[in-house]
Amino acid sequence: MSADQAKFHVGDEVGFKLEGSDFTGFIDKGYNNSFLITFESSDPEIIDKYHNKVVINNKQLKMIKAAPQPDPEPEEDEEDSK
């Protein structure tokens, strides 16, 4: 995973350019150097061409809002109660 890739996680809201227009969307899945983004558009041509999903190179993404990341669960010491 590259340093650029490590900045983003599934669920993050990101901004990107598509066909000269700015869009925002949410990361659905990560690949080696890109992400699958779900987005909405009011342009019928964009909707018809992309069906509200697009793969964007991670270097072309801008973070808008990070998704909450689960904290690693601390290991609890189990004590025997006798």
UniProtKB/TrEMBL annotation:
It comes from the Bacteria. This is DUF2187 domain-containing protein. It comes from Lentilactobacillus senioris DSM 24302 = JCM 17472.
